[in-house]
Structure formats: C-alpha cells, structure tokens
C-alpha cells in the first residue's frame, strides 16, 4: 500500500500545492510508524518516508527536517535490520534532495559517524554507500558551511573507535580536495586530533592520516602567509614528545617546516620547542630520522636569536602584538633563588578543551614585534644540565645554546649567570671531553665578556670575590707590586681585561679541584690547557697563583702547584708565556715571576724548575742548598727525578746550551750538581751525571771576548728582584708544610692507637 498509494497521494498534494497535507502525511509516517514501539511499524515508516521523499522530488528540500529527524532516530535502534533500513531510507532522501541537504549536514554527519562504527557489516555497508553519496554532494557544491561544521569535526576527531577515525579522516581528505573549501584556516582546531589518530593501531588508518597531514603540510608550504603558525606551535611541541615514533617524527618534521617558514614568529615558543627537541639529539640509530630532524630544528631555532634581542626593551613585552602561549608560562617562571633543586623539566601538557576556544593569534604575514622569552629558554637549558640521565649530544647542544645566547644576548644572559654558574662548574666533571670543551667555552665567555663588567651583574658570593674594584686584570696584591709595575700591567695589551666573573671562576675551579681530586688527576691539565687557549694564559696563572698563596689545605696547594708547573713547562699552549718568563725583560714578566714563585714555594722542586725556566740559576742554587733542611721523602725524590727528565726535554734546550758557557753560568752547573747530590743511585742520577760529564773544561772554552760579562748575567743583576726576600718566603712556606706534616702524622698515630684499643 505504502509503495503504491502513498507516492501517488503525495504527488497529488504537490500538484495542488497542499503543504499542510504533505506535512500531515510526513507527521503520521514519523510519529505513528517510524517512531512506533513495534519494529514492523518502524520498518514501514522508514519505507514510507523514503517513498514520500521520492514523490516530492525537488520539493523534498522544503520538508527535509521532518523527513530526516525520524530516520536519524532509527540509527540508534537496537535491531540491526532497522538500522539498515534507516540507512537505505536516508540514502533515498539524500539522493533526491542533493544539495538541499547541506543545511542539515551536521546532523547527517553525526549520524553517519556513529554508523561507521556499527558492529553489523550490512549496516556498515549501507552507511558507506550513504557516506559516498554525501561526499559527492559536498564536492560538487559551493554552499558547504565549513564554519558550522568545524565544531562537530573537532569533537568527533577525538573518537577512539577505529572505524569512526577512518570515517573522520576520509572526510578530511575529501574537504581538503575541494578547491572552494579552505580547511587550512581551521587546521589548528583539528591538528591535535589528527596527531592522535596517527597513533592508531591500524596501519590503514595511520597511512590515511599520514596522507592527510602530508597534504596539509604541502598546502602550508605553498601559502605560508595565511597559516596560523602560532596557534599550532604548542600542539606540535606536545606531539614532538610522543612515545610513538611515527607521531614524533611527523610532528618534528612539521616543527622543522614551521621554524623555517614562520621564522621569529616561533621564538615565543622556544622554551617548549627546546623541551621537545633537545632529548631527541641523543637518540641512537634506531631513531636516526627523528634525531636528524630534531637537529635541524635546533639549529634553525638557534639562528633566530639575533643581537637585537639583547637591545629590546623588556618593559614593552606587554605591548607586543604576539601573545605568549599559555603553556609557556609554566616553563618561563624563573627558578626561585632560595631553591637548590633543579627546575621541573617534563613534558608539556595540552589542554584539549582549550583548543575548543577561538584564538586570536596573528598570522605570519603580519608585521609584529617578537620578544625572545629568554627566561623560559634558560630555565629549560638549566633543567637539562641538571638532568644526569640525558645523553651526551643533548648536553653538548645545551652548552652550545648557552654559548650562543651569551654571544648574541650577553646583557640579558648575565642576569642568569649566578644561577647557571654552579651547574656549569659541576659539568666540568662530565665523562665526555666534548662536553667539557663546550662547558669551558661557556665559562670562558662568561669570564671575558664585557657585559659581565656591569656592577649589577657581578658575582653574588662576596666571600669568593676579593675586595677592590670590580674590574680584574691581574689578581696580585698591591703590596707585591710597585706602582709603576701595576700601571704597566693595566696598560699591557698582552693581558686583556677580564670581567668580575673571571676571578670567581678561578676560585671555584680550584675549589672543585680540591674537593674532587680525581677530577684534578684525570682532567685538571686538560681543563687548564683549554682555558689557556680560550682566555689569557698569563691571567689564569697569575690569578691561580694568587689564590693558592692563601690556600689553607697545604697538601692540595702543593699538588696544584705541581700540576700548574707541569702544564707551564710542557704544554704547547703555554709557549708564549714560557718565552715571556724566560727572559724577565719587562716589569710584567718580573711581576708574574714573583707571583708564581710565592705560590710555587708550596712545592720545593717546582720552585727550582721555575728558577731554571726563568734563568735564575744562582737563586736555584741557593734553594737547593736549603733542601738539606727539608724532609726528603720518596715523593720528593720522585719529583727531582722528573725534573731531571724535564731538563733533557726540548723545553730546556737553552739551559743545556748554556752549560757551554761555564764561566758565566757557574751557578747553573752548581745547581745541577746539587740535584745530582740529592738523587740516589738511579737512572735519573746516571742521566744527569752523564750530562754534567759533557760540560767542557773552562780553560779550553776561553775566547777573546770571554772576559766580558754575559747578557744573561746582566739580566739577572738588573732584574730588581729581591731574591733574599723570596728565599725567606720559601723557608717560611716550607716550615708551614713541615708543621702540617707533623700534625697529620700525629693525628694518624692517635687514630691507630684508637683502633688498637
């Protein structure tokens, strides 16, 4: 009856333009049949509504609301057959109405998204037919309401059902392909959901999502000026930290393109980007692709920081057009000064509900003033340095960032130096030489940058800083230098001015060596040699000698002096400084010698070697004469042995040649014989004995000008150095060492007695 009489009746009403009767028929089919409690009645109602729509033809668009609603209600029917009939009925309604159904697209899409996950294969097949029909209509129409559809799409995209996800992705691909529909404008609304779908267990769905994201990225590259980079930055930050490799790689590729296309628009999100990128730099070959892309992101982001960022007035930050992202706030809060714990360093959290709110970030084409969020960046870098679990390449990248920031934005960076200084010093104990090298570069830049000269940026630990002016040239006490000598030091171009952090650095470095003797033994020479390359070697040795002069731990002072002396005598980096000390021609070199000598007195043998280096042979002989009053230990003899070995090295070639001039270098020969007398019968004894046997007979070496005093003798007598005072200082220091050894021996004896008792 419905299939034959109903269509004829409806066509008659259409011919008569009897709208009320048409609505009445639809109402009866809906209320009394389609929505009936009896399943057979519901089936009949669905068939009737489809027949009615066919009979209405082009006029069905006037009654679509009344036709569609009862059918969609049947989509939720418990009977799978009725759900199938509902699909069939809606298919016929949509097929007749075509473009007229677009105003009702959201309710149709909502219903279809539910059927896409239907467990019954027949229902699913029917929904797919309806889905394809609806896609054809959307594709051929230019009246699709994208604005009204986006909220529904944003809601449905977070479905966890595989079929629903597949349905969503298929629609996104269709909408992307329609020229008149600009889905790119609304990409921030759905990007997070797309990345979540990318982690689906189904390979097919993952592939579809990859294609969709790839199409979006192509469109972004074609039209970067219309892309809302700022709105999507935090979403990418989150997914760059995903556990799923595909999600992380895809997000990292997007981040790379965003940084390169948007440029400085991405700077306010730097701390979040670094939080995501830095750990990836230490990935192994299993995640090689992610590591490579992350490295490009890191390098590209670093290039966005420019010197102008150091000059920008921070008071104008609130007036900048580009707002700071919400998730940046947690990363940019400065670490509390009273807290000794490292800052929190974890994954950023994305508030999905926040994505549902309309945002108003400007697009990249707008001319905007971007302010570098330096506080947030430094906190992230500090956090990663504190994290002992991070890989070597990440630590190197962090240190490169710090160095880059100190170069580009030194004025702002020195506000963070007091908080960074302790962790930079601790990093010197790192297992990797590469990490230590980069760490030394940062510390050297801190110690030498003119920006560190500002009074407000000086070291905060007053106990570590000597009284006097903030500027530190050579840390020698005024009482040790003549006024003319000090003036010449300050004007010397060979010793560039260090800032207020230089002396603090030297103090804390020596403290670290004192507390970590293993660091001194294994890396001490390496660290000091590199610092001599990065900074001024004379300033380093002068300041360390000055600090060691007041060192209370005499045993450490002796060990440290021995280390510094070995570096001074053997390292190629100290060639210029050795030449400067060799002749003592200038007031600067003589002042340096006196400063070194006073600290070198902590170790008798190194003091003699310093005199050999500076050609103070008479004083060397006088010192060796004092050795008879010292406690000769195995360690002492070992150091004498090493000195003999050094005399045979190329560094002391000039000394060996001076043995030819016996008449003018008698104290050199006496000093060497003194060393020989100190040594037991050993290989070093034989070596030095053979050398002295080669000294020629003075009578055979006389020449016509042999009666003239030598240049070296003139230099020694004209040096204006009070060697008597230096010798007294040596005796005083050695008496302290002797007293300290007796005290240590007494404490050890008491401890042994306690153990026995």
TrEMBL record:
Pfam family, one: Vac14_Fig4_bd
Vacuolar protein 14 C-terminal Fig4-binding domain location: 517-695
One GO term of the biological process aspect: phosphatidylinositol biosynthetic process
Known function: Scaffold protein component of the PI(3,5)P2 regulatory complex which regulates both the synthesis and turnover of phosphatidylinositol 3,5-bisphosphate (PtdIns(3,5)P2). Pentamerizes into a star-shaped structure and nucleates the assembly of the complex. The pentamer binds a single copy each of PIKFYVE and FIG4 and coordinates both PIKfyve kinase activity and FIG4 phosphatase activity, being required to maintain normal levels of phosphatidylinositol 3-phosphate (PtdIns(3)P) and phosphatidylinositol 5-phosphate (PtdIns(5)P).
One CC-aspect GO term: endosome membrane
Signal peptide (residue range): none
Protein name: Protein VAC14 homolog
Stated family: Belongs to the VAC14 family.
Keywords recorded for this protein, A-Z: Endoplasmic reticulum, Endosome, Membrane, Microsome, Repeat
